[in-house]
Design goal:
This protein has 252 residues and is α/β, with parallel strands linked by helices. Helix content is 37%, strand content 11%. The radius of gyration is 17 Å and the shape is globular.
Length: 252
């Protein structure tokens, strides 16, 4: 599948992602990646030490793939899995405070089958939504390096390419994700406006695909981090409003 490039090699994501023709195959390949030594060491160390509340858990401790149907018209792009959230449960925004806020809002606007996300196989089903991130491994201090972001970029670019026939809108959670996503969208064939749209809560921009001519609506939203929700910078009502706008633009 990877033409001799092993999962530990820096070019593994770029070489492998380009050859995959389905999201199932992409998700499976993502979970094998070991291209960023710092992230591999961190995610596995967290899984060994564990948090006291999760001592009985068998941590996922691998890259976390995207979550949602392959024909989703709406995508949500975050930053990276949390050390004791997605890195523990193996699913995006599952098992951490940010995910608690996000899934409650998704359920409230009719985009998820239940308001809580606790583990893989908990029965939660997203409705027309694919949830992913530009970095698939939990980073120390929630801060991937630019090199780690760039190494991981081909996974997201291929994911967006495979979603492209149905994708109509993307809600981007936070400034890091916004800045990381723009070059990925360009790589996946979307033409960026000039000047490039700046991140802001409620920001909206429309892109056009260079081959298909399809439009893609890009919406900015503050990240549902504990800092943002505790300070009131992002309220549940604000998050629900952006998600509902995204759903409307996606025809959901």
């Amino acid at each position: 599948m990877n033409g001799g490039t092993g999962p530990e090699e820096p070019d593994f994501p770029a070489v492998t992602a380009a050859r995959l023709d389905s999201l199932d195959r992409l998700d499976a390949a993502v979970t094998t990646c070991r291209a960023c030594p710092r992230l591999v060491a961190w995610r596995e160390d967290v899984a060994r030490v564990k948090r006291r509340a999760y001592q009985d858990w068998d941590y996922w401790a691998r890259p976390v793939p995207g979550f949602g149907p392959p024909d989703a018209p709406l995508a949500i792009v975050g930053l990276a899995p949390a050390a004791h959230g997605g890195n523990r449960t193996g699913r995006m925004f599952t098992g951490d405070p940010s995910g608690d806020v996000l899934y409650a809002a998704l359920h409230a606007v009719g985009l998820a089958s239940r308001p809580t996300a606790t583990h893989r196989g908990d029965g939660l089903e997203p409705y027309g939504v694919r949830i992913t991130a530009p970095v698939h491994c939990a980073p120390p201090a929630n801060r991937p390096t630019p090199a780690e972001r760039d190494t991981c970029r081909p996974w997201l670019a291929r994911e967006l390419t495979l979603l492209q026939p149905a994708l109509q809108a993307v809600v981007v959670l936070g400034g890091f994700a916004w800045q990381a996503l723009l070059p990925v969208l360009r790589q996946a064939g979307w033409e960026l406006p000039r000047p490039r749209p700046a991140f802001g809560h409620g920001t909206q921009s429309t892109l056009r695909h260079t081959e298909s001519g399809r439009e893609l609506h890009l919406l900015g939203c503050f990240h549902p981090s504990q800092r943002n929700t505790f300070t009131g910078r992002l309220t549940p009502a604000m998050l629900r409003d952006v998600l509902a706008r995204g759903a409307g633009l996606a025809g959901l």
